Amino acid sequence: RDVFALASSVALISGIVILTLAPETLPPARRARRVDWARANALSAIGRLGSSPATLGSSVAFLLFWLGLNGLQVNMYNYAGYRFGWEPSQAVGLQAGSGVVLAFANVLGPRLLAPLI
To answer: Helix, strand, coil % (nearest 5) of the chain?
Structure first.
């Protein structure tokens, strides 16, 4: 419980610092006078993802990537324990290695693939 209280306190203090000390970075000319709640609706934003094949395709690809990544993270320890008899302390290296590979793929993938598209 103490850890959650500490994390909540840090989040609250961070929010207060951001709201009081961080300056507004958007120039006054680009600021909206009023919020258009019809455009701020999250469900309409999801609907706009399907407005073009590029946004729909990239959204579906990201969703599938995200589902696969979370499935990998959830099942990695169970699979390593079942298949190889590893303890969770041994499987953590495999999990860290897969995270490094994914980080490099996210950095290098767009740079290498963008010229081909």
So the answer is: 80, 0, 20
